[in-house]
Amino acid sequence: MENTFKSVSLTYRKASVEIRSLLSLDEVTCKIVLQHVKEFTDISEAMVVSTCNRTEIYYSSTEDKSLDLIKLIAIVKGVEHIDVFKDHFNVLNNHSDAVNHLFEVSMGLDAQVIGDIQISNQIKNAYQYSADMGLAGTFLHRIMHAVFFTNKRVVQETSFRDGAASVSYATVEMAEGISSSFINPKALVIGLGEMGADVAKNFKNSTFTDVTLCNRTDDKAYSLAEELGYETLPFANLHEKLMNYDVIICSVKMKHFLLNKLDFPKFDVLSYKYIIDMGIPITVDPSVEEIPGVVLYDIDQIQNKTTKALEKRINSIPDVKRIISEAIHEFNQWAREMEVSPIIQKLKTALEDIRQEEINRFTKKLSNKEAEVVSKVTKSMMQKVIKLPVLQLKAACKRGEADNLVDVLNQLFDLEKTMEVRKCPQ
Length: 426
What we know:
single chain, alpha/beta, six-stranded parallel sheet, four-stranded antiparallel sheet, 14 helices, 12% strand
């Protein structure tokens, strides 16, 4: 198989939350990167995935374009001295490795919280961006549909997605743990995007009874608070009321810090304020911890406890990998068949040209009805003649032996020369 599918990845495994923050991409910047890929490279297909754990580009090219893509991300983000960061990227130039990585990421096997369900929507969004930008071709369409079908099998056939195990759920678990010494602790959730809203919903099954929601769009906070029975805090009053809460969870996307040292004056009494920053880029200035009593956690410090749901997921990993392996095997068979589709089309074209040439020679004196019968008979004969070579080609693909048969067909029918003749102007 031609080694064309590749990936370049910046993930939590090799890069700190600060580095990931510098190079993270939102919807707008993802599309800008894709637009630049389309305009300034010869990459035929590409998909950009950016979450709190990773920023990745999957692409199709016969050449290693990883350094160009890393520089492109840096340019879009306005980051200088990219050489300092390039070693934090993981480059997969082997087709099989890149395909397997995409499947494992999409299923949640490579997530900080095993089986995190939010990755499914994030992958779908990334695929949609590629389609919108005209960078999703036959290969990417096929592999993504294989990914979605595999995800469906994982849900139906394993316990990998059972129970609550996600970054949002783990955040609420952490909030419960760090505030266990408080009597009726007060929690504030800032930002109600997908993750923030999921945090708010997970609080319903926690020990917290006093939860307040705050969002830049106040209407969204009011709507979700009414649904869940929570209080709301107008975004305009956030900094004024911040000290009223014991646990503050920040899940917003901003280009600058939302919270900093000035928001946390020295406490009059011995107490603690716990802040969990779920943002990538980070939106809480790390210097807040210089204030006595303020404790800050970032996304990399959020981990699931050993819950039954997590245990089920870990125990299901072998089954998930088996399903992925089956899906990749089936996908690779399709990919190998796609490699021989051009020769099949050439063969069909060559035989059709011969058929048309002979029909034109011998049907000039026939009636329309007679000519129609001859055309029908010769077309049927051609289909039967070509059927066996096509079946043999597809079988050879499955065995990984198609190259020899392609060469034989090229020589037997002189297909390259035939195609050149066809392209010559009459």
